Amino acid sequence: MANSTTLQSWLCHSNNRMDDDTVLLDYKDLVRVRRSDLWRVCEHDGWINDIVMNFCFERHRERARDEQFRHLKGELIDPNVAHFLQHGDILDAAQLLKDLELDGSKLFCLPVNDETDLSLHVGGCHWSLLVHTPAVTADIPARWSHIDSMSHKNIPHAEKMAKQIAKGLLINEGRGSHFLSTAGDGDAGKENNNFEVELFSLEDTPQQKNGHDCGIFVIELACKIVDFGVEWEIDEDFDMHDIDARGWRKETYRDIEFLIVDDGEQFTA
Amino acid sequence: MDSEEEKKEDKGEHINLKVKDQDNAEVHFKVKMGTKFKKIFDAFLQRKSLQPGSVRFLFDGERVREDQTPQELDMEDGDSLDVMMEQVGGK
Q1: What are the Ubiquitin-like domain coordinates in residue numbering (chain B) (predicted)?
Q2: Nearest by CB to A121, which of B63, B85, B89?
């Protein structure tokens, strides 16, 4: 078996790492991690993509399942699904929310990407996190919160996503029939256009000090929030400032390497 | 008579699938229930001049893998796959 340094160079390095689509790990038949994805993790300035995020969420769910007395207190929504909810047809979004068993009583975390040109097949510059928190008590109603590691750059995108999902949830509760009208005039059209969602854009959130770590903040914060539960915003024990992006890269790389070696198939030849 | 029956049988095992881009452009495929999605994905990627691995295919919000078949996913005639872009971000 190769030692760890040569293993890392074998795993991460090839002539054109950004484009190398060799699949290194098929995690639980759910996520396929390619060499280019692993490169995004271990390079100090690699931009995180949806596959890496998807892998980390799946890994987090799996770890919680393995520990007997621990369960996640919220849902991690995969980035493709979040993207679909934001940009897809409102009826499709409502149906998908139903399939995912998401309703207003759930805590859920959604990665927000800033790409709006849907004709692209690779796109985006910035990730942020949108959180739906259900009512804790009668005094603290359900709310949409936005956490952005680069001041409030992604607000318009988060607002659009929150609005679209809020509409979908209302449709599923049987209270959103007016959203189904596409007419631009008439009462239904007006109500449709005027629908607003209040977005709490959190201040005092951890800020990235470089141009490449936003995806890591989203992954770490989302996992923390679903571990903590619905009171995350009002409990002073919840600390979002201890994110170590460098440490995350090292740890996540090691974890993926471990899974690849554990899988074994790559090394039988 | 014989040929008509054959046609019927033939119809039974083929379904029409739509692969829907995010901007709602559709590509139609007529496929067998047992055909691996790899064949469909490759054809789609080729048609759109895309690199393998650059897009994700979803059916009802679930990621579809290339070694699955329409049969395994209980797909029906007229069902559609959604194509999602690879999303990245850093700053």
Answers
A1: 13-90
A2: B85
Size of interface A-B (CB pairs under 8 A): 105
Q: pLDDT digit string (tens) for A234-251? A: 999 999 999 999 999 999
Q: What chain A residue is nearest to B56 in terms of C-alpha separation? A: A80
Q: Which tops the pLDDT comparison, A2 or A52?
A: A52
CATH architecture of A78-238: 3-Layer(aba) Sandwich (3.40)
Nearest C-alpha in A relative to B83: A121
B90 with A213: CB under 8 angstroms? yes
CA atoms within 13 Å, Cβ hemisphere of A196: 4
pTM, full prediction: 0.85
Q: What is the CATH number of domain B14-85?
A: 3.10.20.90
CA distance A85 to A97: 8
Rg (Cα) of chain B, in Å, rounded? 15
Quick: pLDDT tens for B77-90. Answer: 999 999 988 899 99
From the candidates A116, A121, A216, which should be mutated to test the interface with B, based on the most B CB atoms within 10 A? Answer: A121
Contact between A58 and A27 (Cβ < 8 Å):
yes
Q: SS3 for A94?
A: helix
Q: So where are chain B's domains?
A: 14-85
